[in-house]
Fold:
Amino acid sequence: MKEIQGGITAPQGFLASGIYAGIKRTKKLDLAVIYSEKDAVASGVFTTNRIKAHPVILTQKQIKKGLIRAVIVNSGNANACAGIQGMTDAKEMVELTANALSIDKGMVCVASTGVIGEPLPMDRIRPAINTCVEGLSENGGKDAALAIMTTDTFPKEVAVREKLGGKVVTIGGIAKGSGMIYPRMATMLAFISTDVVIGKEVLNDIFKRAVDQSFNKITVDGDTSTNDMAICLANGMAGNKLMVGKDLKKFEEMLTYVCKSLSKMIVKDGEGATKLVEIRVKGAKDEEDAEKVGFAVANSSLVKTALFACDPNWGRIMAAIGYSGAYVREENVSITFGDINLVSNGAGLGKSVERKVIEVMNNREYTITIDLNAGDAEATILTTDLSYEYVKINVAYRS
Structure:
């Protein structure tokens, strides 16, 4: 597997564009179109928030119908909690995109991200959709990645290539996410393209596993958005033989790699984050318990502020482990920062060890390993610290 340039448009037959439509107050790109020149098998994973944005509800229905050719995405406005008008606007965005591309409206997905509870400025979006479609190109992936950003500080894109089924197969992707990052799907937008030949049910299974191992293992602030979705389109233009065995396993590895790469970029770009911390939980009774502990620690505001302060306050981690709901015995727990063991048999190892841990915590990236010594299961969660800047960003989000 080789990582290449090109992002969402790296696979054969995919075009993209991104423009400024006037949705955002500042003049930054805010409307994107992703287009497949051939019908594409589609798979999607969506937010589990019971309050879902109108584009999420509509796209869930569109993907169930069958093949997809295009995705229209706006940033700056979530089109969530917008009443009847919100669904009307989402449907109109789909129809206008379909008309501009001369395809059936059932083959268009729609996604939105931004402020919740405000109506879309459809008077600006309507003419912009035609402009965005006219700008579609094989080099438009970067603009599309920029156009879906909200508080992100950099565009997130990746692509990989491998020979499968006798042909060269490519997977590309873009994502956005910085705040409101907590799984239960993944709290962000992600769009994956591939030219592989694959059946819908097989793609569904593989994509859900890839999402579970990537976007569902990250958290920045513990908030699950109303707008989360991850979509994978496979247009078959690589012309490979239908994959089985080793080739199918390689494809899953490629797709998981793309999803993990994008999810790591999202956490790195967490709002106001100064640290990227891997919480590795091992020795759990089962995987569910390992995830409970990992997310309890990763989402704890007290732990996250300690990470920001480079304070080895391991008591906060122990408290989070205790309320996680997982099976745990205090006297069996050990906690290690990097390769420095700080807690053994449930007790701290002293101030001299804490001073060594502070050196680890001053790094931009490091791992905290929690061993429950209760079984063989493990899980790894990516998280960030919680800084003053996070508060500043979110205080000013609507201003």
